[in-house]
Design goal:
Layout: E1 8-12, H1 32-39, E2 43-46, H2 58-63, E3 69-75, H3 83-95, E4 99-104, H4 122-132, E5 140-146, H5 155-159, E6 163-167, H6 177-187, E7 192-198, E8 200-201, E9 206-207, H7 210-226, E10 231-235, H8 245-257
Parallel strand pairs: 1-2, 1-10, 2-3, 3-4, 4-5, 5-6, 6-7, 7-10
Antiparallel strand pairs: 8-9
Helix pairs in contact: 7-8
Length: 262
Amino acid sequence: MAQVRDRIWIWGHEAGSHNEEWGLPAASRMTPAEAAWYMGIPNVIFVTYQGKPEPPYDIYARAFVPLKQVVWSIVGEAGRTSESAITGVRDVAAKFPNITGVMMDDFFHDPKPDGSLAPISHNRLQNVRATLEECGRRLDMWVVVYTHQLDLPIAPFLDKCDVVTLWTWRQEDLVNVERNLERIEALAPGKRVVLGCYMWDYGNKCEMSVENMKLQCSAGLRWLTSGRIDGMIFLASCVCDIELPAVEWTRRWISDHGDAVL
């Protein structure tokens, strides 16, 4: 029988990816696998950051073998993608069966003059899925949606995806988290929705308050146990070792609630 912990993910980047920006108070050296172990989380979403790492990915995947599930980015931070990134994930997934999906990070942007909304066109998504399935099985296609993007015409893209992850970029907007979940449910009916939970306020480059961490986790647990969402993601691995109050509170929260049966 599934437990809460089975539906929790750590968002991972290469160690130290955020050290030079975002206003963090200290440098991190923690890897995604170490963060998963430290936080008591059995699943990782591994996302390229500033083009790193580059394929082949095998040496990174080996560290994730003890984990239950891994989702690997084909679109990284700032919407970066390439054919080599896509085929690189296909190749590593063929060797490591706990890789169950692909993530498209920072996928949507304001419409460009040519009308494009994303780095991979709606029509091309099906071809990308076919390429990924050359690994020998279907990989779930995950996508990032920020609450400030909910007015964009993104529904046709969401229809091509399996899992929609919902993120609130600035903590002052978390007061609208219930309403924004309703909006994503309307935009993507029947899709699995996963709640993204920041442990650092990247939008404001400041600490995520413990009170707002509690707000995210309380809402997430309520929706998870009722079946309204499919999981929760905590971001990011590269802030887990710098003694942030929100991280340490979240670690205790996972310890307290992770073994609850769904």
